[in-house]
Amino acid sequence: MNVLNLIPIYSRLFAVTVGAILLVWYWAPIRDHFANRFTAYPVAVVVSPGCVKEQPRKGCGESVRAATAQVFLIDVEHQAVEMKSVTTEPVRLQPCAVHDRVNWSCYDVSVGDGVPSGIKRYIPRTSWLLLKYLGIQPNLGGR
C-alpha cells in the first residue's frame, strides 16, 4: 500500500504551497547572507499636512510610510560599504569600519536615501512588507 494514496490530494497541494511560500519568504535573507550584503527596511513617520502637534484637531495625526528598501554591499577586505536602492544610484560610503556583514559602521552622512520627510526608523522585513503591501501599521513603540 502506497502511503501517498492515503493522503488526500488537497493536503498534498497545501503542503507544497506552504513549502513554496516559505522558500520565497526566506529567500531574500538567505541570498543576502551568501552575497555579503545587508538589506535595511526604512519607514518614515509623516505628520498630516497642516497639523501642528501643539494644537491637535480631528483628522490630524501621524502615519507611517514604507520607504524604499536599501541594500548595503559589504566588502570586508577593503573596509568599504556601497549603498544602493531602486530610486538612487549606488553610493560608496567612506570611511567605514567593517567587521563582517552585519557588524559595520560608516561615517558618511552626506548620502540622501529617498526617505520622505519625517523621522526615519528601520523595522523588521515582515513588518515592512505588511506596511508596504497591505497598509498594516507597525507598532513603533515610544514614537
Overall number of strands: 9
Mean pLDDT score: 77
Total individual domains: 2
Order of helices and strands: HEEEEEEEEEH
- CA radius of gyration: 21 Å
Determine the N-to-C terminus distance. 61 Å
Strand order in the largest sheet: 1-4-5-6
Low-confidence stretches: 110-117
Can you summarize the main beta sheet? 4 strands, antiparallel
Folded structure, characterized:
The chain is of the alpha+beta class. It folds into two domains: 1-34; 36-134, no CATH class. The chain has helices at 9-34, 125-134, and strands at 37-40, 42-47, 62-66, 70-75, 80-84, 91-93, 96-98, 104-106, 119-122. Strands 1-4-5-6 form a four-stranded antiparallel β-sheet.
What are the SSEs and their pairings?
Layout: H1 9-34, E1 37-40, E2 42-47, E3 62-66, E4 70-75, E5 80-84, E6 91-93, E7 96-98, E8 104-106, E9 119-122, H2 125-134
Antiparallel strand pairs: 1-4, 2-3, 2-9, 4-5, 5-6, 7-8
Summarize the structure.
By secondary structure, the chain is an alpha+beta fold. It is 25% helix and 27% strand. The protein is built from two helices and nine strands.
List keywords for this structure.
143 residues, alpha+beta, 2 domains, four-stranded antiparallel sheet, 9 strands, 27% strand, flat
